[in-house]
Design brief:
The structure holds two protein chains of two kinds. By secondary structure, chain A is mainly alpha-helical. Among the domains of chain A are: 42 residues, no CATH class; 98 residues, Cyclin A, domain 1; 143 residues, no CATH class. In chain A, 47% of the residues lie in helices and 4% in strands. Chain A contains 19 helices and four strands. A four-stranded antiparallel beta sheet of chain A has the order 1-2-3-4, with no helix packed on it. The longest helix of chain A is centred in the N-terminal third of the chain and has 18 residues. The termini of chain A are far apart. In chain B, 21% of the residues lie in helices and 19% in strands. In chain B, a hairpin with a 7-residue loop joins strand 7 and strand 8. Chain B starts with a helix and ends in a 22-residue tail after the last helix. The relative contact order of chain B is 0.15. The chains are: A mainly alpha, B alpha+beta. Chains A and B meet through helix 6, helix 7, helix 8, helix 9 and helix 15 of A and helix 1, helix 3, helix 4, helix 5 and helix 6 of B. Chain A: One of its GO terms (cellular component) is nucleus.
Chain lengths: 407, 338
């Protein structure tokens, strides 16, 4: 079938489509010159003019992924393999990544951010399926700075409109404990320090729950709390040889990083435990301190509901239904009324509140809204003198010019 | 590299991990807890044992020590009930509908609050019979909460409608600073009302720091007057309040993890990133930053109509002393000037 066009060599118009072996060729019937060969079917009108259409201009280009996208998808897949996530996670993460990369907010950012984007998609997928993955672990896998990761994560959440459920603390404890190297005998871990995984896990979970009830978890980074709880649990399971081991050494032996806030969390946990221990009848005789209370953690956890209730005042108001056998009931409310949270011991109890409320940082507050009655409408006249005070006098300008060497 | 080895160990042990998506329920949902407030005492007996179950955040929690259960007797039940309702995540009524905590709260019992928490069923990926959370306008109950959000900052913009020479302004004005390498605008401050303005060479100006809309307008006019006195034909067009930031204190601590479970579609709580919970309320369209201490920051209050403010906050947070709120009718509740 003759196509339109002219042969560039001889100028004849008789062009024939012929197949040379399997390849389609457009040949001039007069001089035999091959005009084009291997034409792919495209929708471009260039084909009519019998010119080869470069692949980058054909529709095939649109179907091919850009190199950036390909690399990103490979990265996401590699991350999923490293984390040993189920296949379903991988598909979801890849689809998020593809969607996100098309948005202008992510298409035109630096390469560094694009790499983080892949990690964020994996992170979001894990969280949506309640797979406990912390930002810290993803950042270490990506060698990324946490604040940059945070900004990419938040913008991803906003752009794609994803709802990400909160991190489940119990799952986090389980996976975090799995990374502790205390369950099998190794070279640098002495025998008395080895522990059974299930027991440690159970007790750590108990301590973490206790911390959560005592307002130590809300608003704080979860990993230091888990580390401190694991330390206390480990110590309490066999206090004899382990009480002398400090937190730093414990983390080194376990092969885990020691996050800086862990010491503070440990202190807070011990304070709560000491408070609870004071309510346990068979411990009242002892003078417990931070070290010795660890031995009794098992008992404290077992009765924690009762102990928490008795050791700490709940509302800051008096509880009307105190323990029975208090004495004359008529006196009770009167005694309880004036002082908040007093118990039969006569001690004043600290309320069970978040630490930020118990130890508020002193802040210099500016005077409370001294609403100037003057600015009632916003349309008051403005005096010239008031404005003049903000303008420089000519002498000042001269001096300033000299000093600055401007203009 | 040392950092990789904990990860490798984690990976090896991950292979033996549970399948999170198919973990079984560990407890049966209770009978539907119809929450016609105030709570009937008959239901308390049913509810009390639930209060003392451990927080079953991970359904594979079979090794938990439940031996403290006998500690709690019926006498202690009332005390439990009048406790802070913050233990939202400890009350595991699997079958409670989730939209019960919208609407009016009477504070006779803090039970109204815990009921809304659905931690473990959601954690296991199995969908409990929850009705979807519909965005509800916070209730305007007749009792006043006494909580009034204080305006902390107002951001407004105005168009001076003339091209400005920033160098000139910086030279002739005492209260201006201009560093073109850092930022392409003059930063000008006045003492009364105590505000800061960013003045751009196109003639647009942003005024921040005022504590009320009128003050913001007055301050913007003063800035315009300064620019006028410097010799530019400045006008005062399109004054518009862009953002208002208020803060308030609800006076009780808030269980953020419980709040994020019940209002999942609106809240975002990332303790690894930020200690507060970001709640994007739909109606009215405000963003609240809620902290565990009970302090709340309300922002992005772009006014299109009447704004309800902190009244919304308390109806969300499961307050123990949940004093019910009315819409705070004060400074946040005004229509923006055109």
């Amino acid at each position: 079938m003759a196509a339109r066009g002219r042969c560039p060599e001889c100028g004849s118009g008789s062009l024939v489509e012929d197949a040379h072996y399997a390849q389609q060729q457009l040949v001039c019937a007069a001089c035999g010159c091959v005009l084009s060969e291997g034409l792919l079917t495209t929708t471009y009108t260039d084909e009519e003019h019998l010119r080869e259409v470069a692949y980058s201009q054909s529709t095939g280009q649109k179907e091919q992924r850009s190199r950036c996208l390909q690399r990103g998808i490979r990265r996401v897949q590699d991350l999923c393999k490293v984390l040993q996530l189920p296949a379903v996670f991988e598909e979801t993460a890849v689809s998020y990544f593809q969607r996100a990369l098309q948005l202008p907010a992510f298409h035109l950012v630096s390469l560094e951010k694009k790499e983080l984007l892949g990690g964020c998609c994996v992170f979001v997928t894990c969280r949506q399926h309640n797979w406990p993955l912390t930002m810290g672990s993803i950042c270490s896998l990506l060698y990324a700075k946490q604040d940059l990761f945070a900004s990419v994560y938040l913008s991803l959440q906003k752009e794609l409109g994803l709802s990400v459920p909160a991190l489940s603390l119990a799952d986090l404890v389980t996976t975090h404990l799995n990374s502790f190297r205390l369950f099998q005998p190794t070279a640098n871990v002495p025998a008395p320090f080895l522990e059974d995984r299930e027991k440690l896990l159970a007790r750590t979970l108990g301590i973490v729950e206790l911390a959560s009830e005592a307002w130590l978890v809300t608003g704080r980074h979860p990993v230091p709390i888990v580390t401190a709880a694991a330390f206390l649990a480990w110590q309490s399971l066999r206090p004899g040889p382990r009480l002398s081991c400090p937190l730093a050494r414990f983390c080194r032996l376990a092969g885990v990083d020691l996050p800086p806030p862990a010491h503070l969390r440990l202190k807070e946990l011990l304070e709560i435990l000491l408070g609870m221990a004071s309510q346990l009848s068979w411990l009242r005789g002892f003078r417990l301190d931070k070290k010795t209370v660890v031995k009794h953690i098992g008992d404290l956890l077992q009765h924690r509901v009762f102990l928490l209730r008795n050791a700490f005042s709940q509302d800051g108001e008096e509880q009307q239904d105190t323990a029975p056998g208090q004495g004359s009931p008529s006196q009770d409310p009167e005694r309880a009324c004036p002082s908040a949270g007093k118990r039969h011991g006569g001690r004043s109890l600290r309320p069970l509140l978040p630490p930020c409320l118990i130890h508020p940082r002193k802040r210099l507050r500016a005077a409370a809204p001294s609403a100037p009655a003057a600015a009632a409408t916003g349309d008051e006249p403005i005096s010239d003198s008031e404005i003049e005070q903000y303008l420089r006098s000519p002498e000042e300008i001269q001096a300033f010019r000299k000093a600055k060497g401007w203009l | 590299m040392e950092g990789a080895s904990p990860l490798e160990r984690y990976l090896e042990s991950c292979s033996g991990q549970d399948d999170f998506s198919t973990a079984p329920h560990l407890f049966t949902p209770m009978s539907p807890y119809d929450l016609e407030l105030p709570i009937q005492t008959a239901e308390d007996g049913v509810f009390a044992p639930q209060l003392n179950q451990p927080k079953e955040l991970h359904t594979d929690f079979s090794s938990v020590d439940l031996s403290f259960l006998p500690d709690v007797t019926q006498d202690n039940k009332e005390q439990n009930l009048s406790e802070d309702g913050h233990e939202t995540q400890e009350e595991l009524d699997g079958s409670l509908p989730s939209n019960e905590d919208s609407g009016v709260f009477t504070d006779e019992s803090s039970l109204s609050d815990p009921g809304a928490a659905q931690p473990s069923p959601e954690a296991s990926g199995v969908c409990p019979p929850l009705t979807p959370m519909t965005p509800v306008t916070p209730a305007t109950s007749s009792e006043s909460s006494g909580i009034v959000p204080q305006l902390q900052n107002i951001v407004s913009t105005v168009n001076l409608a003339c091209k400005l020479d920033l160098k000139n302004i910086a030279l002739h004005a005492r209260n201006a600073e201009y560093n073109p390498k850092r930022f392409a605008a003059v930063i000008m401050r006045i003492r009364e009302p105590r505000t800061t303005a960013l003045i751009f060479s196109s003639g647009k100006m942003v005024c921040t720091g005022a504590k009320s809309e009128e003050q913001s307008r007055l301050a913007a006019r003063k800035y315009a007057r300064v620019v006028q006195k410097l010799g530019f034909p400045a006008k005062f067009l399109d004054f518009k309040i862009q953002n208002m930031v208020g803060s308030c204190d609800v006076r009780f601590p808030i269980r953020l993890e419980g709040l994020v479970l019940t209002h999942q579609q609106f809240s975002s709580y990332e303790p690894e990133l930020f200690p507060g919970l970001v709640y994007r309320m739909v109606k009215p369209r405000i963003v609240l930053l809620i902290f565990v201490s009970g302090k709340v920051v309300l922002t992005e209050v772009v006014l299109l109509g009447v704004v309800l403010g902190a009244g919304a906050v308390q109806s969300l947070s499961h307050g123990c002393s949940g004093k019910p709120l009315e819409a705070s009718q004060n400074s946040l509740c005004r229509v923006a000037p055109p």
